[in-house]
Design a protein that fits this description.
- Helices cover 39% and strands 24% of the residues.
- The chain has a five-stranded antiparallel sheet, with no helix packed on it.
- A hairpin with a 5-residue loop joins strand 3 and strand 4.
- The longest helix has 40 residues.
- The termini are far apart.
Length: 122
């Protein structure tokens, strides 16, 4: 019985060769998966960037700011109330994308992130 098992045992050289072949095939599969992932991410970012519009405002521009309740579960007003406050005038623009606003009564608001603003067209 042991003689039959001995016939199926691999030598160290054969075992090393088989392991090396398995590792090479795994490297190829990993490289293919990585390339597929990079193609998918590039396609996804192109689709996303088509819809993105940069919002940059200059000092003196008129903007509207989104109205955000302090407690989001208690929304004030009905569904027909405006979601935007304003118009405000941009007083200061920071390099980080934040803006300091002033309303008609010279009351300062901000700094507020540019993603919560939109241009006001009188």
């Amino acid at each position: 019985m042991e003689e039959a098992l001995w016939a199926y045992r691999l030598t160290e050289e054969e075992n090393a060769r088989l392991r090396l072949e398995e590792l090479e095939s795994l490297d190829e599969k990993r490289l293919e998966a990585q390339q597929s992932l990079e193609c998918f991410q590039a396609r996804l970012s192109r689709a996303f960037n088509k819809k993105v519009r940069l919002r940059s405002f200059q000092v003196g521009d008129q903007v509207l700011a989104v109205r955000r309740p302090i407690i989001t579960s208690h929304k004030s007003g009905g569904k027909f109330t405006s979601k935007w406050d304003g118009p405000y005038v941009v007083q200061e623009a920071y390099s980080s994308g934040a803006y300091k606003l002033v309303d008609a009564d010279d009351m300062r608001i901000g700094p507020i992130n540019g993603k919560f603003l939109k241009r006001y067209y009188p």
